[in-house]
Design brief:
heterodimer, A: mainly alpha, 2 domains, 9 helices, 1% strand, B: alpha/beta, Dimethylsulfoxide Reductase, domain 2, Barwin-like endoglucanases, Alpha-Beta Plaits, seven-stranded mixed beta sheet, six-stranded mixed beta barrel, 40 strands, 28% helix, 19% strand, globular
Chain lengths: 209, 1034
C-alpha cells in the first residue's frame, strides 16, 4: 500500500534546493541590507538650527576651514562655537527666525546641541589632521556637503570602508591646496603631480587604542 | 597537566645568585605552588554573585536565555545607533583647540620639595601630570605622588562647602563671621589667637603670615607636620647657627654613606636625588666608574635596596655608628676640632669592625668626593655631626652645597606643637586657625590634640575634606587643590616657581594664602577687600623683582617656563661650623638605650611611601599601588625581621599590639627579610577614619604610639601577639615567572671581567623557529630599554602608566584574587641565600612586545595581532575574553577585566564599594585618547600606542620624520632615574638602539625565542673589594 503519493519522492531535492536558496537569501539580505552602507548612509537628522551648507559653502563659497578651524592641527573637526556664527550674523540677517536658536545660545551661553551625523564605529580613533596632511579632501569622506541643505551621511564610515582606502589610498589623494575643493576630480590634478606615498596604517592600533 | 621543570630554574645550583620574591617562594610553600599552577587563581566564584542567583538560575533557564540572545543578536544591525549630540563652545576660549591638549607649567609641594610640573589638560580638564624639563627639581621627571595627585583633584569625597557646626554653610557666612572675629581679636593684639600651619616653601605664605603678625602682634604661629625635615633644619641650626638646606650632588660623589636616610624615596627632594644618584652610577662601558653607597638603616627602604652594602641597625643605634665612624675618621687624621672630644665612648656592639675601619678609609681616600647624609628620622645632633664631618672632609662646596630656607621662623615641630598644647591647656587659646594638616589624626598620642581642641572656643580648619580635625572644629573651609589655586613655591635649591591653576575650584575651595589674606584684612594695600591668591602672588613677586620695569614680561616668563629664571640663589658654603656648639650638644647626657629582645623592641615611624602622613589616604591609585619593598596593597603593616618574628612568635598577618608608657597601637605584622633585628617599622598615614570612601578604615593608625619626645623612633616598646589575624594582601607572589633568571645582576668587577655577563644567563634559543621570521627592517621598529642599574624601584612609572592608560583599580578583595590591573609592575626580587640579610633587585616589567608573540598564536578571534612596527596590538572590541593569551604569556603581563572595574552595571558586585558606581567627577581624569575597557576584555601595555600614533601624526603634519625623543611612553617620561629609554630600533643613532647594543644588554627569557622588543641592561653592584672588607665578610 502506498501511503505517500509518488510526487513526494522529489521532496528531498526540492527541500534541499529551497532551503539552500532561502539560506542564501537570508545571508544576502543581512549582508546587503544590514550593512552600514544601507543602514547608515543617508542619515540626515533634523538639526537644532536649519543651517544650510549649500548656502554657506556652496553659494557663498565660504571655505570649510572658516568654521571648522584648526582641522589641520586637531583630531576633531570642531563644530564652530556660536561666536563664529555671530561673527557674521550680528550684522547679517540679525532678525531671521531661523537663527533664533543661535541668538538664544549667544545670550544664554548654553551651547547649541547639534546632532552628530558622522559617527565612527565605537572604539575607533580618527584624526582629521592626519588625513588632511596626507591629502585626503573633505568631499572624499563627507560627499558634496556644498550641495546639502541638511547634512546627510554620504559614506558608510564603517571599518571595511576605511580599510578600502587605507589599502590603496592613491585614488583618493589630491594636492594639499585642493583639500576643500568640493568639486575635485582626479583628472583635475596638475600635470606631473604624483600622489605622495602616505603609507596609511592597516594594523589594529592604527585606529584602536 | 604535569608541569615540566624549567631548565634554567634554580641557577643557584651552578653558583649563580638565588632570586626569590618571598619567603614562601624561597622555601617552596605548597600553597604557592598550587597558586602558580592555577595561573588565574580564581575564576568568577559563587561568592561574588548576588545571593540566590546560583539557586534561581537553572541550567535549563540559562540555556533558554542564551539561545534567545543568540537569535536576537542578528537584529543588532537593525537598530539605529543612539543619537549623539555635539555641544560646541558658545564663546571659545582663546587658543583652545578641541582635541589638542594644552600644557600648563605649575608647581606642587611634595615632601618638602617644590616639584615643577607640566600638567596636561584636555578641554580645560587636567588629566595627566609630567615633570617640567626646565625645572631643576624635576628635570622632566615626576614621582609617584605627583603622578597620583591628579586623582586627588577628582576625589569624590572632597568637601563641597563650608561646614559650620556640622551643617553646610555658605562661604560668605564664614567670611563674615571670620572677619568679625578678627576685628574683635585686634583688641588684645591676638594674644589669644593661635594659627597652626604646615611647613611651607611659599614666599607669599611667609609674607602674608608676617603681615598677619603685624596686625596681631601677640598672636603666635605654630608649625606641625607629622612628616617633615624638622630634624635636618634643627641640625643645620646647631651646626651653622641658622637653618639651611643641604643639597647633595650624588652624581659626582664617589662614596655615599647614608645614615638612615631614604633619600631616594621618602626624604625631601627625592626626584632630584634619584636623577643625580642614577647619573653617578650610569655605566656605558666597563671602564666607567660608579659611586658606592653604604647604607645604615633599620627598615629596608628603597634607598637600602639600591645600596652596595647595607648594615642593619636599629634606628637608635645609627647615631652610635655615626659617632664611631667620626671617631675612626678623627683617629685617622681628620681634624674635627672640639667635636672630636664629644664623641663619647660608645661600644661597637653589633657593628662589624670593617663597617667602621674600611668605610672610614674609603671616605678619607675620597675627600671632597664623599657624601655623608643623615635621614630626617635621626635627631638634630646627628645632622650637626654630619655637617661637621662633611665640612672637615672638604666635601662642602664640592658635593655638598647649602641653600637658605624660605621660612626661617619655622621651629622644631615637636616642641612647637607641645607649646601649643600647653597653651591650649592653660586657657591661653581662644581662637585656633588650622591651615591645612590634620593634627587630630596625626599629632603624637601624648599631645592628645583632639581632647585639647575641645577647650578652644573658636576653631577653624582649612582642609580638602571633612576629616578627623574638621569634625572637631567649629568651622570647616574646603581647601583648594594645588591645580585649582594660585600660589608660589621655592625648591630646595631656591628656584622660584609659580603655582598656576588649571581649573576653577571644582568644590569652591580656598587656598591657604587666600585665608591668610582674609586674616591680614585691614592692613591691605588696597583697603578692606582681601587680596585674591593671584594678586597676592604677584605682590610678592613684584617686591622681590629686581626689574623695575618689565614686570609683566617677567611674570609671563615665569608662568610659561614654570620658574623664575635665575631665582636659585648661589649655593653657599658656610665657612664656620660651630664645632663647640655641636660638641656641647653631642656631650649632653642621654637616656640609656633600653635592651632589645625579650618582648621589647624599638619601633620606627616612617613616612609612608604612598600616603606620606595620610594626606593621600583616599587616593585609590596609591592605596592599590604595591608598596615598593613589601608589595602590600590597601594596608600598612609592622615590618620585622625573620629573627625578631621568630623571637616574638609572630608570623605575617598576626595582629600585634605595640605598647609603651600607656600608649598602644595594634597593627598586623609582616616579615621583611633584611630588616634590622630588634626593631619594628610602622608607617604613618593609614587607619584614617574620615578620609573618604576609599581610605576609611584601611590599614592601622600608629600615631597614638608616637610621643613628642620620641617622634621618629622609640625603644622600650612591648610587643604582644593578640592572636587575631588580619589578611594582608600583597602582589609579590602574583605573576610568578617560576624562578627563571630574570633580573640579572653582577658586580662591577665581574662586569669588567665579562662585559656580556648577562647574555650567559639569557642565552639565545637552541631550537629553530617554527616559521620564517618577519622582516622589520623597514619603517619604525619600536623598542624599549630598561637599565636595571639606574632603576631605583620608586614606582613612579607604575602610577604614570595608570594615569595615562585609564588603568582601573580593583580593590583589596580583587587583588587578593590575583586580579590587579596594573599594566606595569615593578618586581622586587630578594637576592642571596641569606634570609636575614638579602640584597634586592628591582625590575620594572610590562609587555615586552615579543616579535614572536606567544599570545597572538592562541587568540581565537585575532584580537591581539602584530603591527608592522612590531607592537603587539590589542583590539579591545574584538576580545571575547578567553584568556588564552594570558595563559600563554611567559612574562605574565596581561590583565583581564573580571568585572566592570570602571563603572557600569555589575553582576552582583564585590563587597567593596569601589567601582560599579564610578563617581562622575572621577571620570574627568580619563585620557580621552585611550579606550576605557569593559568587563570581559583582556588588556596590556602597548608602549603607549596613543602617544606613538600622535607622534607619527604630528610628524606627518609637519612633513618631518619622527625624531628620536619625539615619542615617549608615560613610564619613560616620568622616570626620575632616566632608566627607561624608548625609540626606533631601526634608527642607528637613537638612544634606545645604543642602549640595546650595550654589552650588558639582554632579552628577558631570550632562550624561549620570543624576541622581545624590550631589552634590559643588567644590574651592576659596586661592592667594596678591599682585602679588609672581603676578609671580614669571610
Amino acid at each position: 500500500m502506498q501511503l505517500f503519493p509518488r510526487a513526494l519522492n522529489k521532496l528531498p531535492l526540492v527541500a534541499a534546493v529551497g532551503l539552500t536558496g532561502a539560506l542564501v537569501g537570508v545571508v544576502f539580505v543581512f549582508w546587503y541590507y544590514f550593512s552600514p552602507k544601507n543602514l547608515q548612509v543617508g542619515y540626515a537628522p533634523i538639526q537644532p538650527v536649519p543651517y544650510s551648507h549649500r548656502l554657506h559653502a556652496g553659494q557663498l563659497g565660504i571655505d570649510c576651514r572658516y568654521c571648522h578651524a584648526n582641522i589641520e592641527r586637531s583630531a576633531h573637526a570642531m563644530i564652530p562655537p556660536t561666536q563664529t556664527c555671530m561673527g557674521c550674523h550680528s550684522v547679517v540677517k540679525t532678525d531671521s527666525a531661523r537663527l533664533a536658536n543661535v541668538r538664544a545660545s549667544w545670550t544664554s551661553g548654553a551651547p547649541i546641541e547639534w546632532v552628530k551625523v558622522h559617527k565612527l564605529p565605537e572604539h575607533a580613533f580618527f584624526d582629521h589632521s592626519a588625513h588632511l596632511a596626507a591629502g585626503v579632501g573633505c568631499s572624499t569622506c563627507h560627499g558634496r556637503i556644498d550641495q546639502m541643505d541638511v547634512v546627510r551621511l554620504d559614506k558608510p564610515i564603517s571599518m571595511g570602508w576605511c580599510l578600502e582606502c587605507h589599502r590603496d589610498p592613491t585614488p583618493n589623494l589630491r594636492p594639499k591646496d585642493q583639500i576643500t575643493n568640493m568639486d575635485w576630480r582626479p583628472e583635475m590634478a596638475p600635470p606631473g603631480w604624483q600622489p605622495p606615498a602616505v603609507n596609511p596604517p592597516q594594523h589594529c592600533s592604527g585606529c584602536h587604542r | 597537566m604535569k608541569r615540566q621543570p624549567y631548565e634554567l630554574a634554580n641557577a643557584a645550583q651552578d653558583g649563580g645568585a638565588v632570586f626569590w620574591k618571598s619567603l614562601e617562594e624561597k622555601n617552596s610553600n605548597d600553597g604557592l605552588q598550587k597558586m602558580k599552577e592555577a595561573e588565574f587563581p580564581l575564576g568568577i566564584s559563587p561568592d561574588e554573585l548576588p545571593k540566590g542567583v546560583v539557586a534561581q538560575v537553572s541550567r535549563r533557564g540559562f540555556v533558554k536565555v542564551g539561545a534567545a540572545m543568540t537569535a536576537l543578536l542578528g537584529l543588532d544591525g537593525c537598530v539605529r545607533r543612539p543619537v549623539e549630540k555635539i555641544a560646541p563652545y558658545t564663546r571659545a576660549p582663546e587658543y583652545a583647540i578641541p582635541g589638542v591638549p594644552s600644557h600648563y607649567a605649575t608647581v606642587v609641594s611634595q615632601r618638602g620639595e617644590a616639584l615643577g610640573l607640566l600638567v596636561e589638560a584636555h578641554e580645560g580638564r587636567p588629566t595627566k601630570v609630567e615633570g617640567n624639563p626646565d625645572h631643576p627639581a624635576s628635570k622632566g621627571a615626576a614621582d609617584l605622588l605627583a603622578q597620583a595627585s591628579i586623582l586627588d583633584l577628582y576625589d569624590p569625597d572632597r568637601s563641597t562647602s563650608v561646614v559650620h557646626g556640622g551643617k553646610p554653610a555658605k562661604y560668605d557666612e564664614f567670611e563674615k563671621a571670620f572677619e568679625l572675629l578678627m576685628e574683635a581679636t585686634e583688641a588684645d593684639a591676638g594674644a589669644k589667637m593661635r594659627v597652626l600651619v604646615q611647613p611651607t616653601n611659599s614666599p607669599t605664605f611667609v609674607r602674608l603670615r608676617d603681615q598677619v603678625r603685624q596686625r596681631f602682634s601677640q598672636a603666635r604661629f605654630h608649625t606641625w607636620s607629622a612628616v617633615s625635615d624638622s630634624n635636618a633644619r634643627e641640625g643645620a641650626r646647631l651646626a651653622f647657627g641658622q637653618p639651611m638646606h643641604a643639597n647633595y650632588d650624588y652624581a659626582r660623589a664617589r662614596v655615599i654613606v647614608s645614615l638612615d636616610s631614604d633619600f631616594l624615596q621618602t626624604e625631601p627632594g627625592a626626584v632630584r636625588a634619584t636623577r643625580s644618584f642614577a647619573d653617578g652610577r650610569r655605566l656605558r662601558e666597563p671602564s666607567d666608574t660608579m659611586s658606592r653607597l653604604y647604607m645604615v638603616e633599620s627598615t629596608y627602604s628603597t634607598t637600602g635596596a639600591n645600596a652596595d652594602h647595607r648594615l642593619r641597625l636599629p634606628s637608635r643605634d645609627v647615631e652610635r655608628y655615626a659617632r664611631l665612624l667620626a671617631k675612626e675618621l678623627a683617629a685617622s687624621g681628620l681634624d674635627l676640632g672640639p667635636v672630636r672630644g664629644a664623641l663619647g665612648d660608645s661600644p661597637a656592639d653589633g657593628i662589624p669592625e670593617h663597617w667602621i675601619k674600611s668605610v672610614a678609609k674609603e671616605i678619607l681616600a675620597n675627600r671632597g668626593r664623599a657624601v655623608i647624609v643623615a635621614g630626617t628620622r635621626q635627631p638634630a645632633r646627628v645632622h650637626a655631626l654630619v655637617h661637621a664631618l662633611n665640612a672637615a672632609l672638604g666635601n662642602v662646596g664640592q658635593v655638598v652645597t647649602y641653600t637658605p630656607v624660605v621660612d626661617v621662623a619655622e621651629q622644631d615641630h615637636a616642641s612647637d606643637l607641645r607649646q601649643l598644647a600647653l597653651d591650649m591647656d592653660g586657657g591661653k587659646v581662644e581662637t585656633l586657625v588650622i591651615l591645612g594638616g590634620n593634627p587630630v589624626y596625626d599629632a603624637p598620642g601624648d599631645v592628645k590634640f583632639g581632647e585639647r581642641l575641645a577647650k578652644v572656643k573658636n576653631t577653624f580648619h582649612l582642609s580638602s575634606r571633612v576629616d578627623e580635625t574638621s569634625k572637631a572644629c567649629a568651622w570647616h573651609v574646603p581647601l583648594a587643590h594645588s591645580f585649582e589655586a594660585w600660589g608660589d613655591q621655592r625648591s630646595l635649591d631656591g628656584t622660584w616657581s609659580i603655582q598656576q591653576p588649571l581649573i576653577q575650584p571644582l568644590r569652591d575651595g580656598k587656598s591657604e594664602i587666600e585665608l591668610l589674606s582674609l586674616m591680614v584684612g585691614g592692613l591691605m594695600e588696597t583697603g578692606d577687600k582681601p587680596r585674591s591668591g593671584y594678586d597676592s602672588v604677584r605682590d610678592t613677586l613684584r617686591q622681590v623683582s629686581r626689574a623695575t620695569t618689565g614686570f609683566e614680561k617677567q611674570w609671563t616668563t615665569a608662568l610659561s617656563r614654570g620658574l623664575l629664571p635665575g631665582s636659585a640663589p648661589f649655593a653657599f658654603t658656610p665657612s664656620d661650623v660651630k664645632g663647640a656648639d655641636i660638641a656641647a650638644e653631642l656631650a649632653k647626657p642621654r637616656p640609656a638605650a633600653k635592651p632589645l629582645g625579650g618582648g621589647q623592641v624599638e619601633v620606627v615611624f616612617t613616612a609612608d611611601d604612598k600616603m606620606v602622613d595620610g594626606r593621600h589616604a583616599n587616593n585609590p591609585w596609591l592605596c592599590e599601588l604595591p608598596a615598593p619593598m613589601t608589595k602590600i596593597v590597601w594596608d600598612n603593616a609592622a615590618y620585622l625581621s625573620p629573627k625578631t618574628a621568630a623571637d616574638l612568635g609572630v608570623t605575617s598577618g598576626d595582629v600585634i599590639e605595640l605598647s609603651r608608657e600607656g600608649a598602644s597601637a595594634t597593627i598586623a605584622a609582616w616579615i621583611l627579610p633584611g630588616h634590622a633585628d630588634g626593631s619594628v617599622t610602622v608607617s604613618l598615614g593609614w587607619g584614617r577614619t574620615d578620609a573618604g570612601r576609599y581610605g576609611n578604615g584601611r590599614g592601622f593608625d600608629v600615631n597614638r604610639l608616637r610621643s613628642v619626645e620620641s617622634l621618629h623612633f622609640t625603644d622600650g616598646v612591648a610587643v604582644r601577639n593578640t592572636g587575631a589575624r588580619h589578611e594582608l594582601t600583597q602582589t609579590q607572589d602574583h605573576h610568578s615567572m617560576e624562578g627563571r633568571p630574570v633580573a640579572i645582576d653582577a658586580t662591577l668587577d665581574e662586569y669588567k671581567a665579562t662585559p656580556n655577563f648577562s647574555q650567559f644567563r639569557s642565552p639565545t634559543p637552541r631550537t629553530l623557529p617554527l616559521w620564517n621570521r618577519r622582516d622589520y627592517s623597514q619603517g619604525h621598529r619600536w623598542g624599549m630599554n630598561i637599565d636595571l642599574s639606574a632603576c631605583t624601584g620608586c614606582n613612579a612609572c607604575v602610577v604614570a602608566c595608570q594615569a595615562e592608560n585609564n588603568v582601573a583599580t580593583v580593590g583589596k578583595d580583587q587583588v587578593g584574587r590575583g586580579r590587579e590591573m596594573l599594566w606595569l609592575r615593578v618586581d622586587r626580587y630578594f637576592v642571596g641565600s641569606d634570609e636575614a640579610d638579602p640584597k634586592v633587585a628591582m625590575q620594572p616589567l610590562a609587555c615586552v612586545q615579543c616579535e614572536e608573540a606567544p599570545c597572538e598564536n592562541v587568540c581565537p578571534v585575532n584580537a591581539t595581532a602584530h603591527s608592522p612596527e612590531g607592537l603587539n596590538d590589542m583590539a579591545y572590541n574584538r576580545c571575547i575574553g578567553t584568556r588564552y593569551c594570558a595563559n600563554n604569556c611567559p612574562y605574565k603581563v596581561r590583565r583581564f577585566n573580571y568585572l566592570e572595574f570602571q563603572g557600569g552595571e555589575q553582576i552582583g558586585g564585590p563587597p567593596e564599594a569601589l567601582y560599579g558606581e564610578l563617581p562622575e567627577v572621577r571620570k574627568m581624569q580619563f585620557n580621552p585618547n585611550v579606550t576605557v575597557r569593559m568587563r570581559g576584555v583582556m588588556e596590556k601595555c602597548t608602549y603607549c600606542v596613543q602617544r606613538i600614533q600622535e607622534g607619527k601624526i604630528a610628524a606627518k603634519r609637519s612633513g618631518q620624520p619622527v625624531r628620536d625623543g619625539d615619542i615617549t611612553p608615560a613610564c619613560a617620561q616620568t622616570c626620575p632615574a632616566n632608566a627607561i629609554t624608548f625609540g626606533d630600533l631601526n634608527d642607528p643613532t637613537a638612544r634606545v638602539t645604543q642602549a640595546a647594543k650595550r654589552d650588558r644588554s639582554y632579552q628577558l627569557l631570550a632562550e624561549i625565542g620570543t624576541h622581545p622588543r624590550t631589552t634590559y641592561l643588567g644590574k651592576i653592584r659596586n661592592p667594596n673589594t678591599s682585602p679588609e672588607w672581603t676578609k671580614e665578610k669571610g
